[in-house]
RNA sequence: GCGGGAUUAGCUCAGUUGGUACGAGCGGCGCUUUUACACAGCGAAGGUCGCAGGUUCGACCCCUGCAUCCCGCACCA
């Protein structure tokens, strides 16, 4: 119709031809970096800030739909803040994800018939690093394809040099304050991964099991039940309820069992309130070395702990029948022995929840081991004598940190109440090495200090490799690495330069927002609050926004290890365009609720992008003439304010739907139609189009930026990239996110 | 066992402080090849808002109980 129009506008909107070019335009502008925005006069140097870290994806492979959702929501927040003229920083990075990455590489090695021990620590780590680097590059590329306006100049990695300094500094401070201790305790041992894991890394699976009821010997007065007969060779007591009439008379007595399948046992009968009279036989065989609960009972009664299972889930006691054999095999052996000796009284089917390791799937074997722990209950003098637990609890309770949706606060509090000391050491190679150094056993005194070697420090926690003052003996570093969440816990400030007191740290911390999946509430959120409260004496972020899990259209979980069954966001983008995927992920997606991603929805929003394209073609074809129609302007302003309020309150699902609905069904279907037979509408149409593009931009950045670029320059003063145009409405509230 | 969430159109979901359900996407029905756009327009259909009580002038929305599904956490030996 009009030869003035750009040629591409005459064809349907083609996201493929557009998106890469537009992203490059944004990236080249430098506006992802708030410093550049200030330099170029886009934002004021003293503007309010909006800062957020990207939850660093694990360097274990590709980005999946879960990541895509995260990038979309966060990009919307960031684009909105930037358009409001805030000093906006969205800081990218990746996570070394210690166990996850190491076990992935181990699996790859297995295909070559290799084990990590064949390579040795150094060579193996080189392999892991190579793999991590490749994953990292894939992830960064994908994030760019998603249109994420991350400040790549500030990119960080949880295991890079700067973050290593932060980790060591944090460890040392905690150690010096007595919050980190080396302790011999029952830990969760992963026999497959050959490492300890924390309570949160256990996944409980319901399985069928057999409950055996038996006596240790014919003379033993009390029957007990167990699902794990093989551990019974480690029993040192039988616990009954102190008020149980049946057993009261035995309490305090000790029985010697000369032969329990080749093992000698000494069993004391004890009374403990924790035993339930009505469960099973009302008596509990106590295995202090291989059960968390039993260990606690043993502690109360000062019982001996006898380890009978080793790190490979093999028996360490008994004769050839059980010694060195696997626990599963020995279970059968013991049961048969009980049968042969007429000691087995009952055998019944039950279901039980078996603890398995999140990453390797192995059944957890509780074992006593010497490990490093963080004490969550110790009072900290420099923090008004509060414990880490209290430091985690308070900011949420007092509303300094807001959680959206709110009901996750309860989940958070509940977790803290049940929290035990955090085991932070791992017997794996990939990760931050524990900064603890041990003095060689034999001293080689320095000249003149021959009589002072008793002053040599045997254990030193240090950022640098220590040198002994009195002798020439070397220090060897602890072999273990740290739980990956230790370094993740520092993320909001380690990325801003801490422990250095940088300008970034002053400007952007506490961060404004932390957006992530609710599955990370304990692993990550709680640990960040702990670390920030303790190390910086401030909260890590003011708001938490939890998104739901992404599921397939039939409700299957997509984010974790579904492999090729999961929808690849990049394929969807190639088919329908980035803007369409973004809209499908946002409209109707309330915080915290799972999102069923349906390709049909995406197709619908692709049509909308095209609709917007055609609206623009029409408007650009008319004269910008006449006065602004007051009624339409009022209507528009009222909608704009409403949408702005939604943005401020993080109701993106509503804001997106409202602007969508207005543009299509009000502006296109009614206003434009009416304008066709009414003169002097041009100026109004331009006004609505330009402002609609602004309001749509956080949601559909590509198509809006592309159209923006085609709008006639003379119609606007100082036309910039739409990405940094001013949002046309003032904040609806004084402070963001207040209710 | 403790805690949380869900239950609204055929399907997937919105519905912000209680005021006749504004609804969206997809699907289905009828009409329209003319219009910036058939990746479209117009029109109509479709809901006793899980069930039972209660509060209220008025409830999808608040309270109580129940049912079904989902998700955390804990766990019995």
Topology readout:
Layout: H1 15-29, H2 34-39, E1 49-53, H3 65-83, E2 87-91, E3 93-94, H4 98-111, H5 116-145, E4 156-157, H6 161-176, E5 180-190, E6 195-197, E7 202-214, E8 224-226, E9 237-240, E10 254-260, E11 263-271, E12 283-286, H7 292-301, H8 327-340, E13 344-357, E14 365-374, H9 388-397, E15 402-404, H10 408-417, E16 422-423, E17 425-426, E18 436-439, E19 459-461, E20 475-477, E21 481-482, H11 484-488, H12 491-494, H13 503-508, E22 511-517, H14 521-535, E23 541-547, E24 550-551, H15 569-576, H16 578-586, E25 595-596, H17 599-620, H18 630-648, H19 652-675, H20 682-696, H21 701-710
Parallel strand pairs: 1-2, 3-4, 9-11, 15-23, 22-23, 24-25
Antiparallel strand pairs: 5-6, 5-14, 7-8, 7-13, 9-12, 10-11, 14-16, 17-21, 18-19, 18-20
Helix pairs in contact: 1-21, 4-5, 9-10, 9-14, 15-16, 16-17, 17-19, 17-20, 18-19, 19-20, 20-21
The protein binds one RNA strand of 77 nucleotides through strand 8, strand 12, strand 13, helix 10 and strand 25.
């Amino acid at each position: 119709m009009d030869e003035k129009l750009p040629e591409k506008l005459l064809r349907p909107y083609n996201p493929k031809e557009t998106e890469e070019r537009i992203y490059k335009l944004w990236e080249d502008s430098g506006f992802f970096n708030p410093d550049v925005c200030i330099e170029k006069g886009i934002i004021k140097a003293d503007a309010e800030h909006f800062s957020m870290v990207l939850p660093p994806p694990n360097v274990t492979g590709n980005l999946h739909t879960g990541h895509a959702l995260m990038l979309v929501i966060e990009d919307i927040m960031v684009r909105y803040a930037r358009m409001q003229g805030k000093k906006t920083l969205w800081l990218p990075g990746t996570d070394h994800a210690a166990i996850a990455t190491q076990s992935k590489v181990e699996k790859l090695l297995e295909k070559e018939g290799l084990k990590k021990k064949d390579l040795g620590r150094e060579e193996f780590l080189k392999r892991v690093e190579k793999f991590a680097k490749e994953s990292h590059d894939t992830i960064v590329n994908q994030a760019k394809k998603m249109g994420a306006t991350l400040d790549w100049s500030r990119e960080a990695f949880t295991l890079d040099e700067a973050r290593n300094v932060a980790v060591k500094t944090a460890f040392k401070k905690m150690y010096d304050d007595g919050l980190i201790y080396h302790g011999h305790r029952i830990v969760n041992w992963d026999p497959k991964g050959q490492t300890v894991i924390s309570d949160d890394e256990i996944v409980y699976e319901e399985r069928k099991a057999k409950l055996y009821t038996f006596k240790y010997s014919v003379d033993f007065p009390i029957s007990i039940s167990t699902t794990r007969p093989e551990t019974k060779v480690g029993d040192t007591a039988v616990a009954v309820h102190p008020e149980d009439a049946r057993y009261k008379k035995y309490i305090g007595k000790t029985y010697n069992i000369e032969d329990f399948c080749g093992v000698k046992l000494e069993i004391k009968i004890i009374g403990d309130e924790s035993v339930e009279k009505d469960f099973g036989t009302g008596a509990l065989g106590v295995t202090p070395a291989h059960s968390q609960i039993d260990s606690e009972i043993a502690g109360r009664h000062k019982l001996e702990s006898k380890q009978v299972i080793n790190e490979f889930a093999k028996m360490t006691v008994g004769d050839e029948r059980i010694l060195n054999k696997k626990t599963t095999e020995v279970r059968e052996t013991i049961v048969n022995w009980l049968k042969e000796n007429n000691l087995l009284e009952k055998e019944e089917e039950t279901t039980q929840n078996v603890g398995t390791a999140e990453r390797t799937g192995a059944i957890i074997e509780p074992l006593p081991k010497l490990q490093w722990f963080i004490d969550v209950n110790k009072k900290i003098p420099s923090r008004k004598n509060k414990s880490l637990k209290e430091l985690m609890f308070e900011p949420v309770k007092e509303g300094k940190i807001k959680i959206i949706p709110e009901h996750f606060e309860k989940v958070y509090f509940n977790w803290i109440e049940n929290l035990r000391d955090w085991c932070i050491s791992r017997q794996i190679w990939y990760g931050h090495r524990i900064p603890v150094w041990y003095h060689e056993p034999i001293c080689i005194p320095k000249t003149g200090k021959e009589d002072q070697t008793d002053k040599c420090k045997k254990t030193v926690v240090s950022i640098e490799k220590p040198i002994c003052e009195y002798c020439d003996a070397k220090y060897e570093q602890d072999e273990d690495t740290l739980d990956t969440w230790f370094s993740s816990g520092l993320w909001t400030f380690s990325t801003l330069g801490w422990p250095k007191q940088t300008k970034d740290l002053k400007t952007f911390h506490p961060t404004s927002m932390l957006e992530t999946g609710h599955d990370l509430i304990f692993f990550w959120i709680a640990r960040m609050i702990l670390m920030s409260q303790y190390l910086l004496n401030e909260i890590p972020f003011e708001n938490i926004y939890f998104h739901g899990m992404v599921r397939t259209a039939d409700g299957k979980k997509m984010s974790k290890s579904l492999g090729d069954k999961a929808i690849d966001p990049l394929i969807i983008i190639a088919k329908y365009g980035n803007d369409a995927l973004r809209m499908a992920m946002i409209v109707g997606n309330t915080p915290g609720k799972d999102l069923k991603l349906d390709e049909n929805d995406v197709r619908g929003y692709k049509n909308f992008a095209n609709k917007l394209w055609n609206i623009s073609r029409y408007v650009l074809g008319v004269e910008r003439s006449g006065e602004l129609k007051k009624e339409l302007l009022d209507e528009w302003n009222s909608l704009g304010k409403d949408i702005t309020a939604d943005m401020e309150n993080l109701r993106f699902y509503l804001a997106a739907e409202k602007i969508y609905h207005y543009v299509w069904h009000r502006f296109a279907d009614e206003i434009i139609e009416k304008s066709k037979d009414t003169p002097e509408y041009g100026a109004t149409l331009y006004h609505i189009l330009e402002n609609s593009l602004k309001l749509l931009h956080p949601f559909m950045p590509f198509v809006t930026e592309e159209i923006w670029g085609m709008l006639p320059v003379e119609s606007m003063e100082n036309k910039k990239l739409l990405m940094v145009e001013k949002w046309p409405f003032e904040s609806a509230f004084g402070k963001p996110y207040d209710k």
